[in-house]
Amino acid sequence: MMPSNNIFKKRRREFMRRMKEGAALLLSAPVAMRNNDVEHEYRQDSNFFYLTGFEEPDAACLLLPQGKNEKFVLFVRPRNLQEEVWGGHRAGVEGAIKRFGADKAHPISELPKRLEEYLGGAKAFYFQLGARPDMDKMITEKLGQLRANSRAGFSAPSDLRDPAAILHEMRLIKSREEIAALRAACDASAKAHEMAMRATRPGMSEYEIDAVLRYFFRKSGSPRMGYPTIVASGSNATTLHYNANNRKMKPGELLLIDAGTEIDYMTADITRTFPVNGKFSKEQKEIYSLVLEAQAAAIRRVKPGVTFQSVHEIAVQKIADGLKKLGVLKGPIKKLIEKKNYVRFYMHRTSHWLGMDVHDCGAYYTAGKSRKLEPGMVLTVEPGLYFREEEKSYPAKFCGIGIRIEDDVLVTKKGYEILSHKAPKAMDELEAIVGKGVRLNIPQ
Ligand code: MG
Ligand code: MG
Q1: Ligand 1 centroid vs 294 CA: distance in angstroms?
Q2: Most buried pick, 12, 79, 227, 302, via CB within 10 A?
Q3: Confidence band of 299 (pLDDT split at 50, 70, 90)
Q4: Does 312 participate in catalysis according to the annotation?
Q5: How many angstroms is it from 420 CA to the middle of ligand 2?
Q6: Model pTM greater than 0.85?
Q7: How far is the CA of 193 from the centre of ligand 1 (A)?
Q8: Which listed ligand is nearest to 349 at the C-alpha?
Q9: Superfamily name and number for 5-169
Q10: Spatial distance between the Cα atoms of 242 and 231, rounded to a whole number of angstroms
Q11: For residue 422, is pLDDT > 90?
């Protein structure tokens, strides 16, 4: 199910309200080639989709808050039955109006010519220069021509503004519909995580578990994953962006899975770590419970008015404290934190915004200060501990252990809601389900 037209209309109205004047031009994502004439799977640009709901490439959108009859103009690929035989159905100029609610639509080939018409007289021009060098040249040429023609009665926009400044603030606060989509993405992803746990047994390969995740992602109706899945067994888990996913898993090891799927252009981002043979060792338990405790404390911190940074600080405090108790770090806690001694074992941040993009947009700092959380924001809380195998200075018993626990947390009026709560993470829960087997529910 795609969001209804009304949602995009509401977003455009709000975007234009914040623009106040001028014209905004947004571009669809370009098609990316994979090898020779094979294209990468196409996924629309998040900002472009956010305002239009339009999923085809080679499109542009003009928004004109002061336009009389034309406030929302789409430029699209025209219908072409011969090309559609190969590439699939196109909305075309008529569909852009009828199905996507454009006041006016033109073939994309007319964009350069029509820009002069639409930009002439606009005071401000909202366009993200630098994002698409191939388009920048055409745009700046058009601006130059408008300036040169100003004596003939045209005028070029005097202000160039970045539409992202408005869009990213809008996208940072999730609407009811966006939260529903995130919840659906989290539910589908949590189920795939649980199935992956049930499927895991020593002797299997990481890619087999990757396949189980993909199966349940797609079975939920999700069109694509939000990011490449990490299935990292043993010491692979200490490589933060490992995604070769091709190693055979051995008994006694942990498996770290960082995977999330996308529904209605909103993605989940969930990490779980569990023992391949369904039983935590003493050392694994020690590290796991420390990470889990740090995560719980950081999540409890989430509520309106507290800073984004303070969620990280709580996690760091707990991690440093725990590492000291385990004898990994020595010295006064305050010093350990000040000197960042924990960074060797916990080298990433605790949180990022989550939404249409897995590392979603939105400023983390305002006026040089860490941003305060507000209802409708969604952030991950994902502390971890990583003991690289080759580090001879680390306690040998922990070497090769990599553990991260990641949940997706919505800031509510009173506090928080864990959107990804359905993915099992308590140690006894994990031990009870790992290796118990999975039914694919495909009739024989
Ligand atoms: Mg993740
Ligand atoms: Mg994350």
Answers
A1: 17
A2: 302
A3: very high
A4: no
A5: 12
A6: yes
A7: 12
A8: 2
A9: Creatinase/prolidase N-terminal domain (3.40.350.10)
A10: 8
A11: yes
Asked if 301 and 351 count as a contact pair (C-beta separation under 8 A), the reply is no
Q: Which CATH number fits domain 173-433: 3.40.50.2020, 3.90.930.12, 3.20.20.210, 3.90.230.10?
A: 3.90.230.10
What separation, in Å, do the N-terminal and C-terminal C-alpha atoms of the chain show? 29
Question: For residues 234 and 401, what is the distance between their CA atoms, to the nearest angstrom?
Answer: 7
404 part of the active site:
yes
The pLDDT score that the predictor gives to residue 393 is 86
CB distance 233 to 247 below 8 Å: yes
**Which-ligand-closest: CA of 241?**
1
Q: Is 40 labeled as catalytic in the residue annotation?
A: no
User: Residue 45 pLDDT > 70, yes or no?
Assistant: yes
Helix, strand, coil distribution of the chain in percent, nearest 5: 40, 20, 40
Neighbouring residues of 133: CB distance < 8 A, sequence distance ≥ 6: none
The environment of the single-atom ion ligand 1, i.e. residues with CB closer than 5 A, is 258, 269, 271, 406
Q: Are 103 and 69 in contact (CB under 8 A)?
A: yes
Residue 232 predicted with pLDDT over 70: yes
Residue 241: active-site member = yes
